[in-house]
Amino acid sequence: MGTLRAAVNKLRAAMNKQPEAVTTQRASVDTLQAAVNTQQASVVASLQSTILKIFSKNMGKHLVVSEIVATFAIAYEK
Q1: DSSP string of the chain?
Q2: pLDDT recorded at residue 63
Q3: Confidence at residue 23, expressed as pLDDT on a 0 to 100 scale
Q4: How far apart are the two ends of the chain, measured CA to CA in Å?
Q5: What pLDDT does residue 21 have?
Q6: Are residues 53 and 75 in contact, defined by beta-carbon separation less than 8 angstroms?
Q7: Cα–Cα distance measured from residue 22 to residue 20, given in angstroms and rounded to the nearest whole number
Q8: pLDDT of residue 40
Q9: Quick one: pLDDT at residue 75?
């Protein structure tokens, strides 16, 4: 009976540790999500800046969509 009780206690201890692991995992996910959000904001800002440069540089010119895309591709590679 003592062995069974010890096994149950071990199982309970393991179960009690699970919330800690889940909390730690959740914190890791939150940290990664924050990093992704920061990176995404940086990419969006860069794209907006590049698009503004393209359109301000070509203001007043009649551009075909393919020319805009080509200009954007060249500008984005730099």
Answers
A1: -HHHHHHHHHHHHHHHHHHHHHHHHHHHHHHHHHHHHHHHHHHHHHHHHHHHHHHHHTTTS---HHHHHHHHHHHHH-
A2: 64
A3: 82
A4: 73
A5: 78
A6: yes
A7: 5
A8: 86
A9: 62
Nearby residues of 68 by Cβ (< 8 Å), 6 or more positions away: 54, 58
Residues ≥6 apart with Cβ < 8 Å to 75: 50, 53, 54
Tokens of 56: 């301000």
* Cβ contacts of 51 within 8 Å, gap of 6 or more: 72
Residues 68 and 54: beta-carbon distance below 8 Å: yes
- Per-residue pLDDT tens digits of the chain, which is 78 residues long: 578 788 888 888 887 777 787 788 888 888 988 998 888 888 888 888 887 887 777 776 766 677 777 776 766 665
Give the count of beta carbons closer than 10 Å to the beta carbon of residue 51. 14
Q: Which two tokens stand for residue 2?
A: 């003592």
